[in-house]
Amino acid sequence: MNSFSDQKDVPAPCQLVTGGAGFIGSAYVLEARRAGIRVINLDKLTYAGNPANLSSLAGDPDHILVRGDIGNEELVAFLLQTHAPDAVVNFAAESHVDRSIVDPDAFVRTNVLGTASLLRVVKDWWRSLPAHRAEKFRFLHVSTDEVYGALQPGDPAFTEATPYSPNSPYSASKAASDHMARAFHETYGLPVLLTNCSNNYGPRQFPEKLIPLVILNALEGKPLPVYGKGANIRDWLHVEDHCAAIARVLESGAVGRCYNIGGHAERTNLEVVRAVCAILDELVPLGQGGHADLITFVTDRPGHDFRYAIDCSRIEKELGWKPVHAFESGLKETVAWYLANRPWVDHVRSGAYRDWLAVNYGQRAAATGGTP
Ligand code: NAD
Ligand code: DAU
């Protein structure tokens, strides 16, 4: 029971998905439409929101993309009253740690205040529903493993009982939103579900994040910036596995419960970058030395969490979910996707994207790191 297809028996399901034009949200919307779920997609279309992620849904009357902010109370109330969704799935967020270091306010506005406003408006509408509808309604808040803080090598992986200890403005803002979601369940009985997932990879990820950044820089022969010594560890999960987990939690998760989601794929950043280089060497050979010669160690991220690791035995045991993509084959497919989708790549590398590269990397001196 790993896929959206399990939801096909539900009559005329409808979901309000927020942030559904971003990386994970768009993957979720595409799967939801394949499963016959009507989707109202509320997205502010920030630099990270891209309608081209949903181009395959052009002309689909059961996908309605609405440009707007989760913090816009009137708009959210109107969408709830008009479409009466069976669930709200909240992906909308500012999502990049480095940007949260440069401009924390934007993270407080959307992740903290926006989520709190969304919860309040949904709660008021939910309370007006007849009992049989209210009982079936779900609010799923999509969160991150970063709220648990940082691990050292050998530490046990994060469980759902690990105390929150966020270190970056991004993870602190996500932690605040998680607490609000839990509080709305405890205080008002709103049927909230919470998921905390590890690092996602896959098609359509905005190239500010490590894997697409490295792919695109390598294709242009630019330096591949590795923070510090590249020894930090992340647990990687294919975006489709994340979306399938969310569908399972929505379908059968216990109200008020949180579920960790992870890929059983811990890798150091240097291992990930080297793996991308090896795939590119195979697909677009560069000659002597290969793409790994482009690896450049740069000044570390301030407050850089050393390691994340997820214990996802709860969702595996209770809901029968487990990841189906192996990291190595999933990464190869991802690299191939970026090679095959040059118009998408050219579109997202706008002037605003180039400005971000100048802000984030312009000031980072080359550092004496490890061995490329
Ligand atoms: P993303 O940055 O690619 O997309 C975020 C989307 O939210 C964009 O489409 C953006 O336009 C929209 N948005 C931003 N502010 C908004 C607002 N105020 N109102 C409406 N829409 C708004 O992010 P992503 O990587 O797809 O992450 C989606 C969610 O999953 C986030 O909540 C993130 O914290 C969480 N998450 C991400 C990862 C990961 O590895 N990327 C892992 C775990 C959890
Ligand atoms: O763990 C889940 C989180 O994963 C999500 O909540 C976030 O939304 C998502 O952005 C991601 O956060 P990270 O900070 O782990 O992802 P990022 O791709 O930015 O960085 C991955 C690792 O690579 C991290 O240790 C920092 C490092 N890095 C990143 C960039 C952009 C580099 O070494 N060089 C880089 O240029």
Automatic annotation (TrEMBL):
This is dTDP-glucose 4,6-dehydratase. It is an enzyme of class 4 (lyase). Its cofactor is NAD(+). The keyword NAD applies. Residues 16-334 form the NAD(P)-binding domain. One of its GO terms (molecular function) is dTDP-glucose 4,6-dehydratase activity. It comes from uncultured Desulfovibrio sp. GO terms for biological process: nucleotide-sugar metabolic process. InterPro entries: dTDP_Gluc_deHydtase, NAD(P)-bd_dom, NAD(P)-bd_dom_sf, Sc_DH/Rdtase_CS. Keywords: Lyase, NAD. It catalyses: dTDP-alpha-D-glucose = dTDP-4-dehydro-6-deoxy-alpha-D-glucose + H2O. Pfam families: GDP_Man_Dehyd (PF16363). Belongs to the NAD(P)-dependent epimerase/dehydratase family. dTDP-glucose dehydratase subfamily. Its EC number is 4.2.1.46.
